[in-house]
Amino acid sequence: MTILVGYVPNAIGAVAVDFGIEEARRRGEPVVVLNTAPGGELGAQVANEQSISGVRRQLADSGLEHEVLHYTTSGRDAAEELVHVAEELDVSAIVLGLRRRTVTGKFLFGSTAQRVLLDANVPVIAVKPAP
Questions:
Q1: Where do the domains of the chain lie, and which CATH numbers do they carry?
Q2: Which residues of the chain have a pLDDT value below 50?
Q3: What string of H, E and C letters represents the secondary structure of the chain?
């Protein structure tokens, strides 16, 4: 089995990668880090090559078997893609970073983390940066 980490290029994503590495080490499993967005969207969740290179170095330094998936999708948003990849890879858990959002923000924009929590068929581990 494998640990799947949903990555965004910020402090929230960094905490998710750190925790995912530790969880994979604890379980003796490989780790896969996924950064994805719907095709053509260049929002804040899309990592640039510098950020992805940093994640690759961190994973290589961990000594764990690992893979980084970084692409845009057509037809699926980030939550749908995380759940899809989790099913395809038959992962044991998904690690996601969380951020505080206002009620209005959740209502207007939805919550990727909430949708993954509700739709995934495996445990979802939610982590957040220290205050």
A1: 3-127 (3.40.50.620)
A2: 105, 107-109
A3: CCEEEECCCCHHHHHHHHHHHHHHHHHCCCEEEEEEEECCCCCCCCCCHHHHHHHHHHHHHHCCCEEEEEEEECCCCHHHHHHHHHHHHCCCEEEEECCCCCHHHHHHHCCHHHHHHHHCCCCEEEECCCC
Which among 89, 90, 94, 130 is positioned nearest to 7, based on CA atoms?
94
Query: What's the token pair of residue 23?
Result: 């969880």
Which residues contact residue 12 at a Cβ distance below 8 angstroms, ignoring those fewer than 6 apart? Answer: 97, 98, 99, 128, 129
Q: What is the pLDDT of residue 82?
A: 96
| pTM score of the predicted model | 0.89
